[in-house]
Amino acid sequence: VSSVELTREFLDRIKQEDGKYNSFITVTEEQALAEARAADEQRAAGNATIWTGVPFAHKDIFCTNGVRTTCGSKMLENFIPPYDATVTDNFRKAGAVSLGKTNMDEFAMGSSNESSHFGAVTNPWGLSKGEKRVPGGSSGGSAAAVAARLVPAATATDTGGSIRQPAALCGVTGLKPTYGRVSRYGMIAFASSLDQGGTMARTAEDNALMLNVMAGFDPKDSTSLDREVPDYTATLNEPLKGLRIGLPKEYFSDQLSPAMEEQIRSAVKEYEKLGATVKEVSLPNARLAIAAYYVIAPAEASANLSRFDGVRYGYRCEDPKDLMDLYTRTRAEGFGTEVKRRILVGTYALSAGYFDAYYLKAQKVRRLIQQDFINAFKDVDVLMSPTSPSPAFIQGEKTNDPVTMYLEDIFTIAVNLAGVPAMSVPAGFIDGLPVGLQIIGDYFSEARLLNAAHQFQ
Ligand code: GLN
Predict the structure, then answer these.
(1) What top-level class of enzyme does the UniProt entry assign (predicted)?
(2) CATH-assigned architecture of domain 1-457
């Protein structure tokens, strides 16, 4: 098929189906068809990469030149960036066809995609049972769109689980690379020391193809790392014989539901059949991860979000009386509840008198958590655990209780604090709802994670 035909096919599917899911904020039909036509010409001229003419979508956190980029917020409802994120640029150069921008929690804060200014996203698996369940968050739009086959692949970001948890809840495969592996330039900032762009698709192989395009050093991002990018598809078929798997005992506590434990243990058994060895390991400080994250992430967010002041870009309140009125009303009207909660928590934690007690303490805990992973990877190659404590929950169930919502991140967040890479891979069902196996690796072990995921699929 030609790229134009393929692109039309997916655009039609989005038109017919996305009313149910709300997984897109913006569909760029005209641009997509123009890109597809250009891709067909490139292909005819013999200039094709593997991505030339392939449709995909961007999480609406990546700046797209000339295309509205909202970050799920009223604050950026009408923001049209005059430049591309490096990730966007990389896909453009590879000839891929962007169908549009996927829905997300406002400023990527959330685990259910319910904090989006553009409405909640509905999980396709829940809907097939007649129930309105969350897709997970914050990359819930990307996950739901891939799960519903509205798009073969989508970009996503993971500051505290936002690729892995929605991938798990929607039954797709997602990868959060090592911090610094993918450029953050043009990716709207939430918590800069944690934010990392990554991949979401049906299979590990498709994730590898995406990472081949996304990974690499970028002089425009001072935290991007200058290391060679391997071909992530080259090692997908390596045998797993001798792979040393660690099961962190803290993640298999009596708090874990028996149904979830059974799914994960049976996935681990499959790995043993493939020749892997399994042992128990310990991440003694993992229990502190949620507490540390929910100080550090809001602290960084409070600083990053100070740029939305109604002066330079984004939402501006009507008829401000004076400068203070402009600032306060713009921010009161432009930000949603969860974003305001984070700004307040973060500002408090950074304020004189509380900095040492909260922020500095959280940073020390973060270092201990990082050391736990470094120690674990002296003995094993990968760690395995559930991705989320339970399958997709019903919409509205956790919205009035932020702490229960934050507990969704119990298995994913330590990884972000340490900066190591991790994946979520579909690993069965509980009551007809998908469950994810989390595979965590040492720094820059993306190829190994993709290999392990591919062999399992
Ligand atoms: N649940 C996390 C949070 O709300 C998800 C953040 C993320 O990865 N973008 O902060």
Answers:
(1) ligase
(2) Alpha-Beta Complex (3.90)
Q: Which stretches of the chain drop beneath a pLDDT of 50?
A: none
d(CA 300, CA 305): 9
The strands making up 382-386's β-sheet, listed across from edge to edge, are 24-27, 97-102, 55-59, 153-157, 197-201, 173-176, 422-430, 433-441, 382-386, 244-248, 277-281
- Whether residue 304 has its Cβ less than 6 Å from ligand 1: no
Catalytic residue among 111, 112, 116, 138: 138
The CA dihedral of 441, 442, 448, 449, to the nearest 10 degrees, is 20
Q: Is the CB of 141 under 6 A from ligand 1?
A: no
Q: Is 183 a catalytic residue?
A: no
Query: What secondary structure letter does DSSP report for 319?
Result: S
CA 323 to chain centre: 36
Q: What is the pLDDT of residue 255?
A: 83
Q: How many CB atoms lie within 10 A of CB 150?
A: 28
The predicted model scores a pTM of 0.98
Single out the residue of 248, 224, 246, 199 nearest to residue 414, CA to CA.
248
The 10 Å Cβ neighbour count of residue 361 is 16
According to the model, what pLDDT value does residue 403 have? 86
The string of pLDDT tens digits covering residues 290-305 is 999 999 999 999 999 9
pLDDT tens-digit map of 384-433: 999 999 999 999 999 888 888 888 899 999 999 999 999 999 999 999 99
Half-sphere exposure of 276 (CA within 13 A, CB side): 26
Using the mean position of ligand 1's atoms as its centre, give its distance from the Cα of residue 109 in Å: 5
The DSSP element (H or E) to which 219 belongs, if any, is none
Which of 138, 142, 300, 343 is the best mutation target for the ligand 1 pocket, counting ligand atoms within 8 Å of the beta carbon and taking the most?
138
